[in-house]
């Protein structure tokens, strides 16, 4: 069965697509143009509230497919309950601290503080949750790309040896 991913070209949609690619799950990317208010179309709204066959939150979707296809290709949740706890912790950090950074000087200072925490963590482990690539790392990719390419803040990454290696 082909997974249908509806969404605009944004971090949340990209987060889901990266997970599906890593798990080698066949998918169809169906763009939703929020500037044309396509997300308000009755057909689209029906999809959002059909909880039997659809999920709407990107991290929930990632968790679902990582769990459903846990043994397929790469383990993204950790092999033990302890590793899973660390993955969940860093997913929460990403969700509450890393992703929702407005583009002001004040927020750049916050981003610097977060990146310093990551630098410290990544000086001890290869990836955020340990020495394995996980949903926690994957979830950061879209906003890292946004900071580097759209906001031209690559220097914030390059100033940190372990974040750069990550």
Automatic annotation (TrEMBL):
<dbReference type="GO" id="GO:0005737">
    <property type="term" value="C:cytoplasm"/>
</dbReference>
<dbReference type="InterPro" id="IPR004045">
    <property type="entry name" value="Glutathione_S-Trfase_N"/>
</dbReference>
<dbReference type="Pfam" id="PF00043">
    <property type="entry name" value="GST_C"/>
</dbReference>
<dbReference type="InterPro" id="IPR040079">
    <property type="entry name" value="Glutathione_S-Trfase"/>
</dbReference>
<dbReference type="InterPro" id="IPR036249">
    <property type="entry name" value="Thioredoxin-like_sf"/>
</dbReference>
<comment type="similarity">
    <text>Belongs to the GST superfamily.</text>
</comment>
<keyword id="KW-0808">Transferase</keyword>
<dbReference type="Pfam" id="PF02798">
    <property type="entry name" value="GST_N"/>
</dbReference>
<dbReference type="InterPro" id="IPR036282">
    <property type="entry name" value="Glutathione-S-Trfase_C_sf"/>
</dbReference>
<dbReference type="InterPro" id="IPR004046">
    <property type="entry name" value="GST_C"/>
</dbReference>
<feature type="domain" description="GST N-terminal">
    <location>
        <begin position="1"/>
        <end position="73"/>
    </location>
</feature>
<feature type="domain" description="GST C-terminal">
    <location>
        <begin position="55"/>
        <end position="166"/>
    </location>
</feature>
<protein>
    <recommendedName>
        <fullName>glutathione transferase</fullName>
        <ecNumber>2.5.1.18</ecNumber>
    </recommendedName>
</protein>
<dbReference type="InterPro" id="IPR010987">
    <property type="entry name" value="Glutathione-S-Trfase_C-like"/>
</dbReference>
<dbReference type="GO" id="GO:0004364">
    <property type="term" value="F:glutathione transferase activity"/>
</dbReference>
<dbReference type="GO" id="GO:0043295">
    <property type="term" value="F:glutathione binding"/>
</dbReference>
<dbReference type="GO" id="GO:0006749">
    <property type="term" value="P:glutathione metabolic process"/>
</dbReference>
